[in-house]
Design goal:
Layout: E1 26-30, E2 38-44, E3 48-57, E4 60-71, E5 75-80, H1 86-99, H2 109-112, E6 114-121, E7 128-142, E8 158-164, E9 167-172
Antiparallel strand pairs: 1-2, 1-6, 2-5, 3-4, 5-8, 6-7, 7-8, 7-9
Length: 180
Amino acid sequence: YRMDTSIPLFYDKPQEFGTFTRSDNAKLVFARIPTFEFQIQRFSLPAVALGTVGLKGRTGSFSRPGENLEFEKPLNLEIILDERYRALQEIWNWLSLIADPEIDPNRDFEKITSDARIVILNNERSEEVGTFNFAHCYPISMSSLAYANNDPNPGNLKFNASFDYSTYKPDFSKKTVCDI
């Protein structure tokens, strides 16, 4: 047996890893509503799993990969509050729209949801590195906002918001081992 050397192996190529991502390089952008870019301090990318199908055979039980991805819910974000409080107001307005008794969530689903992107920026915050794309997002909760006039370490005010969604998909432009 002779190995085909015309096919490049991923470990034959120099790997470019660069520097590590900073934690303040993310923003949240919605496709329809609200029309505001949220600066994100922190987010937890929800877990995703491939379900399995249990089967029985003559020699016992076994499992096979399932056909659907299962997404953990919700998407939790820590949002930096802008000086005009627009981030908080936009989430409040959206929650109020969903809670309006005139709105039927089943009939008006497209009216109360929006696709969203968490955009990851490079460390200079000048270029998009990639995105996490969420389908059919809508807010389900917003945390309290704590003020402290005597805080010895004043900084940006932040609040948490949680969103439900149907699916998400990462989209990064750099080639990976799986793309070779």
